[in-house]
Amino acid sequence: MTGGGVGDFEDFAHARSGQLLRTACLLTGDWHLAEDLVQDTLGKLFRKWRRVSAMESPVAYAHTTLVRTFVSAQRLRRSSERPDDSLPDTAAGASDDIDLRVTLMAGLSRLSPQDRAVLVLRYWEDRSVEVTAEILRVSPGAVRTRSKRALDRLRVVLGADITLLAASC
Amino acid sequence: MLTGPGTPPPRRGGAAAEWRGTEDPTAADRFERELPEVMRAAVDEFRGPSPDLVRRVIERGRRQRRVNAMRWTGALVVMLCVGSVLVGTRSGGLGLFGGDDAPEPAAMRSVDLRQDWTGNLLDNLAAALPRDGMLSNGETSFAASGPLVLRGEAHVTADFLKAFGLTRVEVSIDRPQGGSDLARDVFCPDFGCEVSYGEDGSSVTTYVPAPPMTTWSAMHLGPDNTRTVVRATNLAPSDPAAAPVLSKAEIVAVAASPAWDDIRAALTPHAALMPGILPGIIQTGIPGAYMSWLAAGPTTVDGLVHSGKSITRVRIHLRAVAENTPLVCERGGCEVGRTEGGLPVKAETYVVEDGVSIQQVLTVRHPGGLEIRLDSGVVDPKDEKPVHTQGGGLTREQMEAIAVSPAWDA
């Protein structure tokens, strides 16, 4: 990535907003919240674009900013919101894929934001323990602990037969 | 199903890579292995972003820049007026900053560095720059009154607007090892590079690049062992390769400006920063031990501590915190207390049941707001990979000896 003008930023944002939105959807569980999160993230990048564009990997920087923005926002909101244990409604006649998505999203929504971020970084973005720890500003040991705990909880919600769910796609 | 818009990022050696070669998985293992596939399948069904998302981001960013520009303009005009009153000069002259009748830089600086935790270097930058322009989009970072060991480098960036263009100005100041020697023997081999030497032992190196490179720079090495580097890059979108709105002489003047003197005085020399003092702390805290380096940054060091036959992987992280903030345990395997010397301490243990490592984390808060956090885990001396063991690494006492060392506050 060279240059640091608005045109370059526009190209970058168009090319990367889809991928950022998918990660944001997994983190937030809601398309509108996810788009807000992506908008905030890209807004932060825009303000520092000249420096960001000169980095070795602006894409990695964007994803790190997205996850950190999500975790910070959840910390701020935690004191004023209560968790809701009810599962989201499933649309009548939804396809298997939609069922799968709802089941996965419902499972993720039962986890704490930090645990969700760990799973998304490890199993969707395929980051190593060390990189995940760096992004979340915690120790690698904490990532391993959170990852195991979150997997156990998710397995309880989704059921052990996740292979069947995956095969149904 | 697994291609198209939901295609995941390229493999980076994460969870998926760790499964290669694993045989006979349990139900939990199988669940973990299949999770990425399930996520990909689910993500395929997500809606894409709104078509106007990027346009909204850019509009909002531009709006924010305008607000910042107006805010800084207002602040600088107020500073100018206050400064004018203080030095008793009459108003008038050219440009926003009052032209020749504007107050001298010393009168414009209003930041009390002893009181100002965050250290607002934008005031110093405003004093160092010519007075016929306007600053906006400023960012600054320097804890002038923070712990000494964290005061390694001061940094400020801002956009400088003149009637005919806009330039991004970046200034960084530090105290490198051998500063005065560096000033006498500057390495300047490139075309576009010039060096001049001052009678006081200082030197200024300027660099005016040939297109398409666009960043002009000046490096001032002072007799007080300080290094001030100024970089100026044109931001005009119509001609990105154009020269900055600052001339070479003006960039040099910013680098050599006395407006930075109090910042320079507050900087800690490189030898007194973490990488400089850590070997001594390790040897004093654990007699006979030494550290081999992996990576060192301004606030973190990752390394291996060799003690007897054992090798421990250690990460030391420093940060400034508000004084008297209590340490709190948020999970089990954690205790909060006081060291023998009375400093607040938090000890945590992370054990990964199905993994390979046990990690000890010790956090100590020093007076003056310095927090030291040690992460340690035993590694195999053969391949330096983490091993599962309760003993052989650093003891709690050894970790504490490192964390409480008075050398951190020296």
CA-based gyration radius of chain A: 17 Å
Q: Which range does the strand content of chain B fall in?
A: 25-35%
Number of alpha- plus pi-helical segments of chain A? 9
- Quaternary: heterodimer
Give the low-confidence spans of chain A.
77-99, 163-169
Biased composition (Pro residues) (chain B): 1-11
Region (Disordered) (chain B): 1-28
Keywords (chain B): Membrane, Transmembrane, Transmembrane helix
Transmembrane segments (chain B): 69-87
Explain what you see.
The complex is a heterodimer of chains A (169) and B (410). Chain A is mainly α. Chain A contains nine helices and no strands. Chain A has two domains: 1-79, Rna Polymerase Sigma Factor, Chain: A; 94-169, Winged helix-like DNA-binding domain superfamily/Winged helix DNA-binding domain (Arc Repressor Mutant, subunit A), CATH 1.10.10. Chain A is globular, with a radius of gyration of 17 Å. Chain A starts with 5 loop residues before the first helix and ends with a helix. In chain B, the strands form two sheets. Chain B has a seven-stranded antiparallel β-sheet. Chain B has a seven-stranded antiparallel β-sheet with strand order 8-9-10-14-13-12-11, with helices on one face. In chain B, strand 11 (334-338) and strand 12 (344-351) form a beta hairpin. In chain B, helix 9 packs across helix 10 (396-403). Chain B is globular. Residues 1-11, 19-24 and 81-118 of chain B have low confidence and may be disordered. Chains A and B meet through helix 1, helix 2, helix 5, helix 6 and helix 8 of A and helix 1, helix 2 and helix 3 of B.
